[in-house]
Amino acid sequence: MPWDPTQYLRFGGYRTRPAIDLLARVPLSAPRRVYDLGCGPGNATQLLRERWPEARVTGVDASAEMLDKARASHPDIEWVRDDIAAWRAPEPADLIFSNAALHWLGDHARLFPALAEQLAPGGVLAVQMPDGFHDRWHTLMNAAVYESPYRERLEPLLLVDPVGPPSFYFDLLSARARDVDVWTTRYLHVLEGDDPVKEWTKGSALKPLLDALPPAEGRAFESRYAELVRDAYPRRPEGTTLFPFQRLFIVAIR
Ligand SMILES: C[S@@+](CC[C@H](N)C(=O)[O-])C[C@H]1O[C@@H](n2cnc3c(N)ncnc32)[C@H](O)[C@@H]1O
Questions:
Q1: How far, in Å, from the CA of 52 to the mean position of ligand 1?
Q2: Where do the DSSP E strands lie in 100-240?
Q3: How many angstroms does the Cα of residue 195 sit away from the middle of ligand 1?
Q4: Cα 65 to chain center, whole Å?
Q5: Atom of ligand 1 nearest to the CA of 66
Q6: Ramachandran quadrant class, 40 (left: phi over 0; alpha: psi -120 to 50; beta: rest)
């Protein structure tokens, strides 16, 4: 799917915060080989580079737009275009890091063990994924699709339960790792501006739906979704909108 790094980074502070929280739980002092899967515009990859300046850090992503932005912002980091589903670490990994990307891939029962297999002994798999697919920002996106005259075209593009419960990842990884830590955090984002929840999703889950429609129909769908989430996440008298957003974190040590 084509990505829009500018729209995505409108909320870059909030989107990078879980990467900071995840990184704080990675118990490595001097990893040599570090990969950031689904690196996007490189906002989290930069944190990896800053924490371990001596490491060889590689950002991996399938999106040419995201990689162009990453390359322009951080020319000192290595960027590789690849599909995570087929990706194999060129050298055993001391750290495989992934912030807000793996929910875009299916078949986690195959993917997570395959990633763990790429780790060197003592290596770490550190992953964060959004975990709010039963929250209203997403159920209302589903509702807007179901009522749309373009339902048939849009429905296959919805992310349906892409993230499993914490115990699913614990069970998958504990057979391959000596230590597995899984937790969730529910952030309370304080957003500003008009229709901020719609604007947030326009940088991620809403985008493939809009891209699938002709421009006028895309605008109509966007307005309808904006209307639905405006009611669910009302603007407060002082002008801000509270947006609770849950995320799931995994740190597994091989
Ligand atoms: C929401 S962005 C996350 C960007 C960044 N990691 C961050 O911390 O904000 C998700 C990224 O995952 C990438 N992605 C999704 N599916 C992918 C796949 N199968 N292979 C490679 N990259 C993928 C997208 O291109 C996008 O850049």
A1: 22
A2: 119-130, 179-191
A3: 24
A4: 16
A5: 27
A6: left
Query: What are the phi and psi torsion angles at 216 (to 5°)?
Result: -65, -40
- Mean pLDDT in the chain? 96
Provide the Cα torsion 203, 206, 208, 214; round to 10°: -110
Domain count along the chain: 1
> What's the pTM?
0.96
The residues lining ligand 1, judged by C-beta closer than 6 Å to any ligand atom, are 3, 15, 19, 38-40, 43-44, 61-63, 66, 83-85, 99-101, 104-105, 204
Of the pLDDT bands very low, low, confident and very high (cuts 50, 70, 90), residue 2 is: confident
CATH classification of the domain holding 83: 3.40.50.150
pLDDT band at 1 (very low <50, low <70, confident <90, very high): confident
Nearest atom (ligand 1) to Cα of 42: 5
Q: Which domain holds residue 56?
A: 5-253
pLDDT of residue 132: 87
- Closest-lying ligand 1 atom to the alpha carbon of residue 128: 8
